[in-house]
Amino acid sequence: MEFRSHAANDAKENLLVEARDLLIHSASPSDPDIFSKQFNEIELRFDRSDEIFWCYMNQTSRPSYTYELGEEIQQVQDWIHANYAMDGSQRSDPLRYFVCGSRTPGIYNLGGDLKHFADCIRRRDLGALKKYARTCVHMQYENSTGFGAPIITMALVQGDALGGGFEHALAFDILVAEKSARLGLPEILFNLFPGMGAYSFLRQRLGRKDTERFILEGKLFTATELYDMGVVDILAEDGMGEAAIVEYTKENRRRYHAERAVYRARKIASPVSLEELLEITDAWAETALYLEEGDVRKMERLATAQDRRIQRSLKAV
Questions:
Q1: Dist. CA 183–CA 186, nearest whole Å
Q2: Which residues pair with 155 in a beta bridge?
Q3: The pTM is what?
Q4: For 272-306, b where at least 16 C-beta lie within 10 A, e where not — what string?
Q5: What's the pLDDT tens digit per position in 122-147?
C-alpha cells in the first residue's frame, strides 16, 4: 500500500511508505465545508477579510501529540491542499496565511506522549515508537511545506512549547510568540534527543553548531531570549498574539508574494526532506531503547508534573 498525503506533496515529493507506516487516514480532502465538521481536538476559524485560516489545538486531555490530534490536523492539511493548491483555479475566498495556535491556557503543546514512550521502552516495542514518531514527522513535513498551497504558515505560541511542541512551532515559516511563553527541548534530561524535526528546522535558523548546543543543553528559553537569538520571528505582548499577526499581515500585504518567495528560497537553500525527517526519527526511536530504568522514571515524573500543571491551569481558568 502507498502512503501519498494529499497535502504539500507534488510529483517530485511523493514518497511511498509501506503499509505499516500508514498512520492516519483522513476524510475526503474535497469536503466543501470543513468548518461544519465536528472536531474533538481542534478548533477552526477562517477570517476571509484578513485571508487567515486559524487552527487551534483544543484538546480535552493532556495537550500533547496524539493520534487523534494528528488525524484531525491532517484533515485540515488535506482540505487546504485540495482547495488552494496551485492548480490554476481561483477561489472567491483567497487564503494567504495559515496560523496554528492553542486554546489550552498557558500551553501551546507539551510535545510527545511521555507515558506512552515509557510503556513502549519497557516493552521493547520499537515498532510502536517508530509508528508514533513517523505520524508526527509526516505532520511536521506538511506544516513545513505549506500543504502545497501558495500560503505562508505561522505558529502562534501563547504559553509553553516544550519538546515536540517546540519542534512543531519550528516547522512553520514564521514563529510568533508572546513574551511570557517558554520554549525548549528538555529531552536530554532523560538521556534522549528531540527526534521529530528539531534538528532539521532549528538548523535552518541557528546553524549546525548552535543547534547541537541548543539540543544538548536542554535549557528552557523565554520568547524574548529566542527572539534575540533569531529563533522567534515576531515577539508579541501577552494576550496580543492574534492582534500582532493580523497587524503583520496587513502591514505586509503589498509584499506578500515576495515574502512567500523568500521563504521558498529558504527551503531551497536549506531543504528539509521527508526522507531526512524519517531517518532522524527512526534514530530517535532506536536511541529510546537504550534508556535505562532511571531515565524512564525521569520521563514519567516529568509527565506527572506536566499533568499537575495542566490541572492547575484549568482550575485557574
A1: 9
A2: 100, 175
A3: 0.87
A4: bebeebbebbbebbeebeebeeebbebbbebbeeb
A5: 999 999 999 999 999 999 999 999 99
**Measured CA angle at 33 (ends 31, 35), to 5 deg:** 125
User: 288 and 119 in contact (C-beta within 8 Å)?
Assistant: no
Number of Cβ within 10 Å of residue 188's Cβ equals 14
Cα radius of gyration (the chain): 19
- Beta strand residue intervals within the chain, DSSP E: 42-47, 52-57, 97-102, 107-109, 152-157, 160-162, 174-178, 182-184, 220-222, 234-236
Q: Could you give the 3-state DSSP secondary structure of residue 245?
A: helix
Question: For residue 80, what are the contacts with CB-CB under 8 A and spacing of at least 6?
Answer: 7, 53, 95, 98, 147, 149, 151
Hey, is 274 helix, strand or coil? helix
* C-alpha dihedral (80, 76, 166, 20), degrees to nearest 10: -110
